[in-house]
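Two proteins follow. First one:
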Amino acid sequence: MKKRLNLATRAFGAEPGMPDRAALAVWIAENRGTTADIITYLLDQSLAPQVSAGILSPCAGGVFYKNRIMTCLNGVESGRAIDETSLDSYAISEDAAKIVVQKKGAWCAMPAPHLLGITDSYYYDEAEWNDAITGTYRSLMRSMRDVGISGHVLICDTLFEPEIISLSHQKVFFFQPKPDRTSLTCLLEHQTQIAVGRNQLNTVLDLTSEFDIRRIIIIDPDEESISHALSFLDPDQISAGGYCTDMCENYWKHLVESAVYSK
């Protein structure tokens, strides 16, 4: 008789959306006495459903964390770099501390630098600007890791290879929600783990002959996609992944329930 076994589950962040006044009032009452703002609320709401659902590798944050990053960047005004770029890390370190209290070992997701949409009006050189903004990101991520964040997911819209080269690290995972083959090839040149949806699974499995892929994380897997991946890889090379953009409490519970395979 076959056994039903569980795959590891991993989160790549969430986009909880802005709360209504009633929900925010309840949350404020529950967190009375702490320093918090709307970003703190969204960090909490992105992580809490993952923890209650039992996600093994939870990840607070999402693209919404752009607002915190922008307010902590020195040398940037109204979306334009007008001076040397640096970081005021106090609020970011405070965020990290709150995440770690909520769940030790959690990761944090944020937009990759290109998603900040900053216009360079100071360096006037693409390479210099990349060095400046990625250097600031390294400082940002290091400050959060120093507080206890385990690593960072950088959410990408497009792939800018100099950015990836500058920020590649064992504690950094580049995540593009809807990659094509070119994007997957670029990512696999710099990291040995890759996250793909069911529609991109065949493409990344085909790339196992070209790259040393240590783990494939299937976003929102179903029984068919898990079975298909198992025909190429061992179970410990496959995880179930999630990136929630709506109704997150049910979403993470469903992910855990679907992360099973038969042996």
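Second one, unrelated to the first:
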Amino acid sequence: LPVGEYDVTLYGTSVRKNTLDKETLPIFPTHVSDGHPTLGGTLIVSQVPLLMGGSASRGASVPVAYVKISNPGTKAAAITGFRLSENGTVSEKDAVIGFSTSDDKGASRTTTYTTFQSGYALVPLTATIEPGTFRIFTIKALLSSSGTFYGKKLQIDVAGIGSTADVKGTLPLKGTTFNFVY
């Protein structure tokens, strides 16, 4: 499939073709071409432990991870996004309605209304890390403005990095914990 997001509907095998589930399927790029830097190389992923967590309120955007990605190599390396996992006590499918990401250079930003599927969410973000440099990415969860989640915990970890480079580092990167106050 071409890169993008697709609405997918899963039907049952009965004659009535009942709808079993509807979800969004993100397809990440597997390579970068058309004038972009050569792919490959090595990226080192680490956590920036600056977040404290706290309280999560209705409709908020809460920072769940700071991720440092370094390129110690001699050629540029590309990333295509982040794979996140939810390990708290909240029903993440209802509480989290999407994600936003940005980097410390202001060059790479995305907002997506991708939700968790089987405990994981794929958040697309296309960025190139030049040789000998690093970037720090902020990942925020966009919370629902409806529902009741009082007393539940939101704990999102970075489970993986989409890249054609060799990714090194200890994954998952533990995210912060937010307590719902609504």
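SUMMARY FIELD: Residues 30-38 have pLDDT under 50 and may be disordered. The longest helix spans residues 92-95.
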